[in-house]
């Protein structure tokens, strides 16, 4: 994994798990996650970027979507809590979800 610092990227596909990015700017880039490694991103700017998922990451998104469509309100609450944690920057790496 290479450390990339202070670079600007245009409209290209970026595998976020392939390198460590610090102080970079991404302009109209397609950000890609496979779920095979950890994305290391520090102090980067994202302008009009898109994100796509593949492999394990896509499987996780698909599973969460299917679970959310269930009639179990408690399960929906856990998934809502998961995404609230992501939005607030407090996603638990230990796997213990915050309570709704």
| Content-based structural category | alpha/beta
Report low-confidence residues grouped into runs of 5 or more: none
Please compute the radius of gyration using only Cα atoms: 16 Å
Biggest pleated sheet: 3 strands, parallel
Portion of residues in helices?
Answer: 25-40%
Proportion of beta-strand residues: 25-35%
Main traits of this protein?
100 residues, alpha/beta, three-stranded parallel beta sheet
What features would you describe in this structure?
This protein has 100 residues and is α/β, with parallel strands linked by helices. The protein has a domain at 2-53. Helix content is 29%, strand content 30%. The chain contains 2 helices and 9 strands. It has helices at 55-68, 73-87, and strands at residues 2-5, 8-9, 13-15, 19-22, 25-27, 30-33, 40-42, 45-47, 50-53. The chain has a 3-stranded parallel sheet with strand order 1-4-7, with no helix packed on it. A 3-stranded parallel sheet has the order 2-5-8, with no helix packed on it. The longest helix is centred in the last third of the chain and has 15 residues, at 73-87. The radius of gyration is 16 Å and the shape is elongated. 7% of the residues are buried.
């Amino acid at each position: 994994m290479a450390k990339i610092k202070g670079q600007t990227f245009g409209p290209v596909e970026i595998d976020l798990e392939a390198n460590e990015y610090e102080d970079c700017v991404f302009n109209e880039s397609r950000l890609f996650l496979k779920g095979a490694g950890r994305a290391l991103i520090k102090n980067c700017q994202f302008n009009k970027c898109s994100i796509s998922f593949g492999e394990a990451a896509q499987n996780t998104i698909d599973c969460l979507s299917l679970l959310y469509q269930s009639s179990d309100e408690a399960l929906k609450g856990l998934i809502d809590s998961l995404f609230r944690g992501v939005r607030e920057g407090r996603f638990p790496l230990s796997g213990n979800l915050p309570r709704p």
